[in-house]
Each structure stands twice: as C-alpha cells, then as structure tokens.
C-alpha cells in the first residue's frame, strides 16, 4: 500500500485513540475540561453559557466520532499490513469516516449556536 495512505490511516487511528482517551477523561470528570476538539472557534469551557447542558449534548456525539475514527483507522492500518479487504472497501471506510467528520462538525456548530 502507498505510504501516504498508510500515514493517513495511522493519523485517523491516532485521532480516534486520542478522542476516546479524552472522552474517558471527560466522563470521569463529569464536567467540561479544556479541549481543542470540543469547542469551536477557539472557545473554552469558561465561554459556555450552560456547561452542563453542553456536556450532555456533546458527549454522545463525541463518543460516536471517536469510535468511528478508532475503528476505521484500525481496520485501514490492519489492511495496510495484511490485505483483509479490497481497496474498494478501504475507500468506503474512509468515506464513512468523512461522513462522520461532517456529522460531528454539524453537531458542533449546532452546539455552538445553542450554548456559546
């Protein structure tokens, strides 16, 4: 497999692992923490009008994003080393991840208009 695609797959996997780690930290804390992936437009938890409401709003969507990135990245990295599916399936997985990114961006913008 081309090394550029392998780098992209590793970055997607790393993004998913970091997002899931951050989701676990947020879940344990039970409140909003400082994070670049949760707040649009360089906002922070101190700028939020209703931190508890935003926490309840964003957490399930953030979990979907992190799991999708982790699973798509892991499957594509695995496929880079051991061919387990065709290039078409890999392209479909990357396309699904792109759809999840767009979904998460739309959710974040909706949350920004409601809570910031």
Explain the overall architecture:
The protein is mainly alpha-helical. Helix 1 runs antiparallel to helix 2. The mean pLDDT is 89.
Helix content: over 70%
Please give the number of β-strands.
Answer: 0
Shape: elongated
Order of helices and strands: HHH
How many structural domains does the protein architecture include?
A: 1
- Global mean pLDDT: 89
Count of alpha/pi helices = 3
Task: Identify low-pLDDT runs.
Answer: none
Strand content: under 5%
* Largest beta-sheet characterization: none
What is the CA–CA distance across the termini? Answer: 44 Å
Given helix and strand content, the structural type is mainly alpha
Summarize the structure.
With 116 residues, the chain is mostly helical.
Could you outline the blueprint of secondary structure elements for this entry?
Layout: H1 3-29, H2 51-81, H3 87-115
Helix pairs in contact: 1-2, 2-3
